[in-house]
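Two proteins follow. First one:
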Amino acid sequence: MSNAKWTQLWLEYHKVEDITKPFAIVIDGFKKENRIIKSLICELKTGLEKMTGAKCTEEEKTTDGAYVVNIRKKEDLAKEGYRISKNGLSINVDSSDENGALYGVFEFLRTIALKKFDENFEKKCVPDNPLRMMDHWDNMDGTIERGYSGNSFFFVNNEIIVDDRTRDYARFLASVGINGVVINNVNVKQCASLMITDRYFDKLKELSDVFADYGISMYMSLNFASPIEIGNMDNCDPLNEDVIAWWKKKCKEVFEALPNLGGFLVKADSEGRPGPFTYGRTQADGANMLADIVKDYGKIIIWRCFVYNCTQDWRDTKTDRARAGYDHFKGQDGQYHDNVILQIKNGPMDFQIREPVSPLLGGLKETNQMLEVQIAQEYTGHQIDLCYLIPMFKEVLEFKTYCQKENDTVADVISGKAFGNKNCGIAAVINTGNDLNWTGNDLAAANFYGFGRLAFDMSLSSEEIAREWTMLTFCADEKTTDVIVDMLLRSREIYEKYTCPLGIGWMVTPQTHYGPSVDGYEYSRWGTYHRADHLGLGVDRSSSGTGYAMQYYKENADMYNDPSTCPEELLLFFHHIPYTWKLKDGRTLIQYIYDTHFAGEEEAEEIAANWKKLEGKVPEGTFNTVSHRFEMQIYNAKEWRDQVNSYFYRKSGIPDEKNRPIY
C-alpha cells in the first residue's frame, strides 16, 4: 500500500462559505476533561475551521461578536438524544449525556455542510435503536472474510494495529451515530481465540480506548470452543461445571483488563462452528451460561441465530434451510436471560438481493432481538457492482409482522417499542478495508453512511440519506448531486433484474459468491437450489411443500401460502411456478426472466454512462476508480443476462417473444 493518505469520506469538511465572525465553544455542565467531550471539541474546531475559514476557540463564557456554540447538559433529554438550535449568533447543543452531545455536534456540522447554516433552526432527535453496531469479519492474519476493500486495518500478521486510521474510523462511526463495534470475524479462527488472553490485552485496551473516546463500546467475537482450543479441556459443554468455572476465570481476566469491552458476539452450531448442540444442549443453554458470567460485569452476549445444517440432504423436498432459524429458536422464546440478545439476519437465508423478512423477527415476543443486515456486498456485487442497499433495509424495517395489533413492524420490534426491550437494536456487517477510499468502490460508502443514519433515525428516507451522503462527500452542484442520487436509488433494482428473478436467490458462483452460476448453490446435495425442471422453477414453501410459509403470523402466512396473493417479487421463493404462469402485467414467467435480464444489463450500461458525464465534477481519483468498477459491472451484467437466459431457455424450450439473441 502506498504512503498516500486515506480519504475522509463524508467528513472531508469541504469549504462551503466564508464566515468572518469567529466561533467560541462554551462547555456548560459537562467536564471538559471527559474523553468524549475532548473528542467533541476537537471535531468541532476541525469542522468549523475547514468549512467556514473562521477561527474557533474555547471560552469559559459567552464572547461578544462571535458565534457561540454552547454545549449544554440538560437532564430532560433522553439518553443519547440531543436538541440543537440556532438563533442569531447563538447555537445551542443540548443533551443529557456525552454521547448525545457528540451526536448533536455532528448534526450541527452536517447542517453547515449541507449549507443550511444561515437559517435559524431547531432539531430534536433521540436514537431509535438502543444498540447501533458494526460487525467486522476481520481475521487476525489481516484478511477479511467477504472483504472487498483490501485487508484489515485492525490486524496485520496476527498483531493488533492502533494508529491514526483507527481514530479516523472511530470518528466516521460516531458521526453517523454508531455506538458499538465488533472488531473480529464471527468465524473465530485459532489465533483469534487468543484475543482473550494476556498476549493481546494491552493492544486491545488501547484500541478500546480509541473507540471509547467517541462513545463506542468495543465487542469481540468469541469462540465457543475456547475451553478446548486455549484451555486444554476436552469439551466445551455449557452445563459442565468445569467449563463454567473456566469461563468465569477467563471473563474475570478479560473484563478487568478491558473495562470498555461491551461483551461478546457468538456464532455457534453453524457452518462447522462448535456449539451447545454438540452436547445435546439448547442454544439457550449456551447463551445463558455465558450471559450469567458476564452479567456481573454489566456486559451482554449477542447470540447469532444463523444456525443451520449445511450438510442437509436436498433429496428430501421437505428439507429447507429457510426453516432452520425459526425451528431452532422459536420454541425457546422466553428462555433467554435479560442480557442475551438474539441477532437475527433480515431474511431466513443469507443476505440475498431479495428475501422475505425472517419470521423470527416478531415471532419471538419474550426475547431480546437485534436485526442483522450486511453492507459488505457478499451476494450483491462485491462492491464492484453498484448496489445501494438502504431501500432494502427500509423495506425490512417497515414490514408488518402482525405480532400484535399495533407497533408490529420490524422497526418496532428491534427498537424495543413493540415489547419494551432495552437490549435490542440493529447491526451491519461492515464493508470497510484498508483501501485508501475505505470501501473499494467510492460509491459503496453510501451504504456505510446510510446504515448508520438509518440505525439512528429509521424515519429517514432512502433518498434523504443518499442526498445527504452525496452532498457531504462531493460538495457537488445540484445537477451532479441529482445524477449520483438517481444512480444510487436505481441500483438495487438494476442489480436484481440482471441477477435473480422474483426472489429465487443464489445462482452465484459457489464459495466466491460473485458472478453467475445458475446451479451453483454450494450446499446442495441433489438437483439445484432453485429446483428448476422443464416445467417451471421455484421452491415450494407453502403448506403443501416445506411449510416455511406457515412460520409467519396468519396474515402473512395466508398471503405467502397462495401464489395468487404472494407478492410477485417473492413468488419463486415461496412457490414452484410453471414457465407459462401469467404475471400481473400479462407476461409469462419465462418472458419476465428474459425481459428483466436484458433490461438490467441495459440499465447498468445507462448508469455507467451517466457516471462518465461527471468527469471533472468529482475528484479524478474517485472518477477513475468508479469508472473501472462500472466496466466490471457491465461485464458481470452481460454474463448474468446470457447465462441465466440461456439456462432457462434450454430448460423450458420456450423462445423469447422478442427474438433477441439468447446464447
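Second one, unrelated to the first:
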Amino acid sequence: MSASVLSSLLAAGGDWKSPPVDWHAIAPEIVLIVGINIVLASDLLVDEARKWATASLTGFVLLGAAIPLVTLAVSDEGARALFDGRYVIDDFSLILKALFLLAAYVVVLLSQNELEEGGYYQGEYYVLLLCSVLGMVMMTSSRDLVSVFIALELLSIPAYMLAAWRKRDVKSNEAGVKYYLLGVFASGVLLYGMSLLYGTTGSTRLVDIGQSLADASGGINGLQVIAVAFVVAGFAFKVSAVPFHTWAPDTYEGAPTPVTAFLSVSSKAAGFVALLLVIFIAFPTADGVYGPLIWVMAALTMTIGNLVALRQTNIVRMLAYSSVSQGGFILMPLAFANSGDAGESVMKAVVVYLLIYGFTNLGAFAVVIAVARKTRSGEISSYGGLIGYAPGLAVAMTIFLASLTGIPPMGGWIAKFNAFRAVIDADTGSAYAMAAIAAVNTAIAAAYYLRVMRQIWMAPVPDGDTTPIRTPAPVGAALAICGIGTLLLGVLPGLVMRFADLDDLTGALAAITP
C-alpha cells in the first residue's frame, strides 16, 4: 500500500465507526468462551489424581455465566438488539439461557463420579460440554439464518463426540456414529432450505424473511414452500420427531447416561427454540405449509413414541422413547402457532413445557444413575422393591414419573395443561382432533410410567439384596435441584410465564425493521 493511500485512509479515520457492542448483553457468552479456554488450559496443568478439579471449575464457569443473566433480568432496559438485529437479548432468550446453563450444571454433577470411576478423559469432556452449551446459549438470541445455523452446529458437533465417549464400548461407538451420520444429513437438509430462503427473499435476517413472505402478492412460491418444508424437517431431526427419530433410542442407550440426559433435555430444547424462532418470526404467513407438516409429525411422534415405549424392558430405552413422545406434546401447539389468537398461548405452552420437562427428565436420569451404581442393570425389573432399601430415590423417581405423566401437583400437569389449552384456543376441527389424539396418548404414557412405579412400590427385590444405596453428593445435589424445580413450577408456574411473551420475542425486531 502506497504512503499516499495510507495517509488518505488515516485522514478519513474519523469516519470509521465500528458497530457499538453491548458487552453487558453478551456477558454470558463471553464468560463461557473464556471459561472454555480456562478449562482446556487447566487440564494441561492438573495431574491425573486431581482431575476432579476440572468438574468443579466447569461448574464455576456455568455459575459465572449465570450471574450476568440475573443482572440482565432485573434491569429495566428491556430487549437489546445487536448487530443490526441479528442477535437479540430479551426475556425469552434469558429464561432459556438460564435453562441451558442450569441443565449443564446438573449434567456436570451427574458426570463427575461416572467419569472418575470409568477412567474416561475428563478435561476434554467438560470442554466439549461447555462448547455445546455455548451453542445453545447463542441459539436463544440468534435472529438470523447464519447465526442460527452456526449455533446449531456448535451445539451439535461436540454432542456427536460426547455420545461416543465410552470408546471401549461398542454400543457407545454405535451411538456416536449413528448420531453423527444422521446429524450431518439433517444439517445438509436444513442448510439447503436456508439457502432457498435466502435466494428467494434476499436476506438472512428472520424478520426480513418474514416480511418478504408476507408481502408476496401471490402468496409464497414453490421454492419457498420447499424451503419451509426443508427447514422444518432439519429441525425435526434435532427434536427427534417421527420419522426423524431413529437415531435417538440407540444413541440414548449407548451414550454415557449423563450425556443421554443432556441430549434428551438440552439438545432437544435447543431444537425447539430454533423452531419457535423461525415459525414466529420468519414464517408467520407460511402456516399453510408448516402447519400440516407439524400436525402430522406431532401426532406420529407422540403415538409411535408411546407405543414403542410400552414394549421396553430397559429403563433408558423407555425414557428414550418417552422423550420422543414428550417431543410430540411440545410440537403439538406449534402446528397452530398462527391460528387465530393462539400465538401467545402457544409461546407460553412451549417455553413452560421445555422448562418443566428439563427438570423432570434430568431428575429421572439422575435416579437411573444412582440406582445403576448398585444394581449394575438398566432393566426396569431391577427397580423392584426400591422403596424398601432406597426410599429417597424411590420417592424422587415417583415424583419425576408422575410429572412426566401429568399428575398434579408435579410440574408436568401445568405443562400438559398449557399445551392442550394452546391447541384448543385455535378453535378448529384439526385442533380438536389433535387434542383428542393427545388425550389418548396421555393415557398410553401413564401405562408405562405407572409400570415403573408399581415395580418401585409393590414388586419384591429381584435378587433379595436390600443393601442401602449410597448416592454420591453431586448426584444427590442434582436430584435436589431437579426435584425442587419440578414441584415449584407445578405449584407456581407463574414464575416463568412472564418470560414467554410473544410481543417480547418480536418487539426488538420490529423496532429495528426499516
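SUMMARY FIELD: The chain has one domain: 23-512. The longest strand covers residues 80-82.
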